[in-house]
Amino acid sequence: MAHAKAALDNFTESDKGEFVIGSACHDAILRPTVFAEKWGVLPQGYDGRTTAGKEAKALLSKTYGNNVLKQDEMLQIRNIGEGLNRHPSISKLLSSITDTELSLVWNEQGIECKARLDAVAVVNGQTILIDLKTSRSAEQRDFERSCVSYGYIIQSAHYLAGAKACGIIKENNNNFIHVVIEKEQPYLGAAYCLDDATLEIGEKRRQEAMRKFAAAQANDIWPGYSEQIETIAAPSWYFEQSGDFADGI
User: Fold this and answer.
1) Among 180, 196, 225, 237, which residue carries the largest CB count within 10 Å?
2) pLDDT at residue number 5
3) 40: which strand partners?
4) 123 three-state secondary structure
5) Which residues neighbour 192 within 8 Å (Cβ) at sequence distance 6 or greater?
6) Which structural domains are found in the chain, ordered by start?
7) Is 96 helix (H, G, I), strand (E, B) or coil?
8) pTM of the prediction?
9) For residue 227, which phi and psi values (nearest 5 degrees)?
10) How many CB atoms lie within 10 A of CB 190?
11) What is the per-residue pLDDT for 21?
């Protein structure tokens, strides 16, 4: 809960390189008109060490702030877009988008909940929520790990709950699609939808997190890690590899 409190109190949009590219990709792919207005691109041959280069960047920064891309970054974004369009299912989803960057606000357990959907599409009469992610790997096993490591399972459950609460989708609709595109050649894309059993676990964990948040908010006590000295053990894979290590001695 301490992390949640810190995030709420100190939230800022990140301007780190990898997040800038991700944000630019979202705009270029989902909101091309906004991208043209929001992002500037440095000229070919730009060199930040030269006076001309510094002047070119300063000029663009006056209009676009930190949203200034180099030529190689712009090329990367174009390649990502082309990679998405090569995937037939993703291409169909993107061409069926009806809304983008849709903000949701609803009340649950006395908590004001928020979510922002990357995009909403309608395909064959079915409303589909879309979450666009750039990644080093779009391979299924890698993304399954990412779903656990980065909380995408709980995120999916939260966005679905918000969309249902706000009337975007019906109660029996769990069409939340993760569109994943690799950031490097050959810029492969994939689309994944979590099964009902996984979403059910995500919803249970979301509800548990909300109960903890409500209690912390009511008492203004935001617990962190254990305040005791804890005994820890090496992870299971370390013990599994120890036999192989001994064999090599």
Assistant:
1) 180
2) 72
3) 68
4) strand
5) 140, 143, 177, 178, 180
6) 10-86 (no CATH), 87-213 (3.90.320.10)
7) coil
8) 0.83
9) -90, 5
10) 19
11) 84
| Closest listed residue to residue 66, CA positions, set 116, 13, 118, 25 | 13
Structure tokens at 215: 């209690």
Q: At which residue do the structure tokens 């989803």 appear?
A: 93
User: So what's the pLDDT on residue 20?
Assistant: 83
Sign of CA dihedral 67, 73, 75, 81: negative
CA distance 48 to 82: 29
What is the length of the chain?
249
Q: Which residues in the chain land under pLDDT 50? A: 14-15
Helices first, then strands: H and E counts in the chain? 10, 7
Pairing of strands 176-182, 126-135: parallel
CB 30 within 8 A of CB 118: yes
